[in-house]
Amino acid sequence: MHAKSIKFALIAVATVALQGMAPSQAAETEITKGNAGRSVQDITAAMSYYKPDPEVARAARAKIGAAPPATDSKRDLAVFYRQRSEAAANLGLIEQQIADLREAANQGKGLDMYPAILSELAAAEANGGNVLTSIELRREQIALAGDKLPLKLIPYTVLARQYAAMGDMKAANEALDQAELGYEKGKSLPKSPWSKNQYLWRYQIELSRAHILLAQGKSKESEQAGRLALAAWQADAESYKARVELGGGQAENVRALLGEAIEQMLANAMLQQGRVLEAEIASRETLSKILKRTGRYSPGTGKALTTLSGIISAQGRYHEAAVLAQEALESLNKAGVPPYSSYMGNATKRYAEVLALDGKWAETLKQYETMVQALAAANTPSAFTKGDL
Description:
This protein has 389 residues and is mainly α. It has 19 helices and no strands. Helices cover 76% and strands 0% of the residues.
């Protein structure tokens, strides 16, 4: 059979198969199927399928429109703002999520729920790109834990990743060392707490180690640590269920987010080693998972698209990389991520880089001007810095 005939026959078979699927299944297949190196048009076409569940969105909109209760009870107000922040997160409204969690923290200070609110606020600030604010909150978490090293472990692992992203390797390694101390201390805990947390703690530590190694240019060692993190994350599935039953587990979406973070880190490690096709396959699969979980417009989707844009650019496919960077910016914009955030800064910088590589200098300059304007307008110490320019 002629090569062109074979090609059209394969397309016909694929079309028939996809027609038998639900739209979301077809979209997921379009993003992940086939070999790396194919056009990204399948991604941009499939993304339109990923919309919020109408019932979930309706319930979330009702919650975010609710007025706070007329009460002087700080506990009741903290619970209200915390729940309303979750509804905002479900709609991808990152700024409202942060605002409500800040108020929940204000009302909940001194209460038993305060450390948990701090953790949620720190994560939301980071998702909004407010890294320095997130670091301050993690430091407060650590201070509240006193001499209980295991309670400091996860905040220290997050700090290690944040410092590595900022290029502060000394602070990153110091934070990782503290997390390791917490892990060793955890071994002396009674059997039940240790057995329910050991894999959680291990994958957090290995993920942080992988980020530090990658920031140091040690991509092979970073990948090894990432593989250990992924294995521990998978092994933690049963322990996670036990923690949830006891009321001490992460929300399911937080666990999923961490698994996706490990996969994205592995894709970046492969990219740094020049294994661009493997990196593209891994990145496509992670993007599909994030889209299915959070929809088209979310900080996670924007970040994943920025990562994939870099991988496509490394293959010399600059026009396609620019398309993905534009999709990343749209996702972040519609999720309400502030223009001064590091997520928005990274996506804008990626777009500028691929435009420059494609020889589009005037458009490149516009993107850098956008970054300068965002810095000038930022009323926060946690914006991306001029060094990002």
